[in-house]
Amino acid sequence: xxxxxxxxxxxxxxxxxxxxxxxxxxxxxxxxxxxxxxxxxxxxxxxxxxxxxxxxxxxxxxxxxxxxxxxxxxxxxxxxxxxxxxxxxxxxxxxxxxxxxxxxxxxxxxxxxxxxxxxxxxxxxxxxxxxxxxxxxxxxxxxxxxxxxxxxxxxxxxxxxxxxxxxxxxxxxxxxxxxxxxxxxxxxxxxxxxxxxxxxxxxxxxxxxxxxxxxxxxxxxxxxxxxxxxxxxxxxxxxxxxxxxxxxxxxxxxxxxxxxxxxxxxxxxxxxxxxxxxxxxxxxxxxxxx
Length: 290
Hints:
By secondary structure, this protein is an alpha/beta fold. It has helices at 23-35, 53-66, 83-86, 130-143, 162-171, 185-200, 231-239, 251-258, 271-289, and strands spanning 38-45, 71-75, 95-97, 100-102, 110-114, 149-155, 176-181, 205-211, 215-216, 223-224, 243-247. It has a single domain, classed as 3-Layer(aba) Sandwich (Rossmann fold), CATH 3.40.50. It has nine helices and eleven strands. Helix 1 (23-35) packs across helix 4 and helix 2 (53-66) crosses helix 9 (271-289). The longest helix is centred in the C-terminal third of the chain and has 19 residues, at 271-289. The N and C termini lie far apart (40 Å).
């Protein structure tokens, strides 16, 4: 059967209903076509909810874009999409064009796509089987007009299940995974499982980030560690993977995030900002070294 090589997904093609070509084959071809223009592909994992994975992913994407790099952010947490909210573009929809689906660009050099960009109501819940999740992710990878990118960051859902397996297959070459944790032992148990899952699937672990690692007391300015400290680094050493750094709690950043104003937060002197900028620097240096 003849392969269609139109750079648009079948879902927005006006000829789709009468088309007799292999639409499933076209979807995979289109994904390969898009991925050929994308440099480093990085998955951001947590294997546990509530550790700040989406926040770290958003901040890293913005940090890379502010360096003049072309960045795509794929929110693969289909049932709990939060990236549009963090960037203040909740309710913004993707639009169709001759080159494919056009994603929102919340900041210069940053393209964002999420299942939230397709919902009529932000309170709607997606209750899908893994097979339909795979089909939808295939549509996001191939249907979106990403254009040339230096980085594609994928904000993964918690766990090591269907989405991880599916995206590992869809993306083909994945340059590695960043694993996010908090310092307490309960989170670290799941981090070890995430590292093992990556190794079992041949996915390089770029490193572990210890989030919520201490804070400054708003009264005396002293350092506090409500969730302990150092567990992420100890686990990285024990598992033989790099430790990328600690990100402390930052009350003002949390307030901005809670209002969906990540783009308005610009405090290079804050401990959390310096830590995340350092992690972004290490990612860039790793790419140069390659």
